[in-house]
Amino acid sequence: MSSEYDTTETLDVKGQSCPMPVVKTKQAIDDLEAGDVLEVVATDSGSMSDIQGWAKGTNGVELLEQVEGEDTYTHYVKKTD
Amino acid sequence: MSTDSHPSIDEDVDATELQELRERVAELEESVADAADDAGGKKMTIIATKGTLDMAYPPLILASTAAAFDWEVVVFHTFWGLDILHEDNSRNLKLSAVGNPNMPMPNALAALPGMDAMATKMMRKKIDENDTATIEELIDLSLAQGVDLQACQMTIELMDYDEDDFYDGVTTGVGAATALQHMAESDVQLLI
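ok -> structure tokens follow
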């Protein structure tokens, strides 16, 4: 799997289910700098909708892309401020 | 309805008053725009009243997720909901086999001794297999994210609990008035 983004860090939440993908994404984002991109790799199909809703309702983050793989759902989240 | 009896706007509102009103409208429009921009500034208060294993999950899942949205979150635990915050009891929350028509057994059987323990064991096994977060993990996560987990003082005394029985970081010494105050300030209020 490849992406066009320079990802700063990768968060592996494979096997984990709601609410962990969102909560851990938020925690990882908090540790990054503005402009950084976090790659989140999940197996929870609910993470597609949940990460999208979270990014929409949260200040300072932007969801760049979501990639549905064979067994994984990968999300690219940018910290904007 | 006739408008003849009303004085016309020109006669009734002088220029200064009109200017003041215009400024006030601009001010209000600005504050509405600020409020709309401030997506993360919401507040949620949950009242958690149930202490069964299944009912311990919704308040904690919603609280930890809302905290991830940067919402200010208060969960007020009262009556059986207090067991969720009780360090020993929270590890032994049980599921009731009776009263849930979705259980794969009739109530008459479910009421037999040992059935609650069996239902609880099955649920815990599923939680483990699915890698679902445990109640303890969700409490730690919520506290780490700044969720205010509150234990109702009246229930603490009613149940003969000690303030030291609760997880570190749990707020004690609060009652209904505190809960109401938070609910009044909240965008989202839930009774679970």
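Chain A touches chain B through 16 residues (CB under 8 Å).
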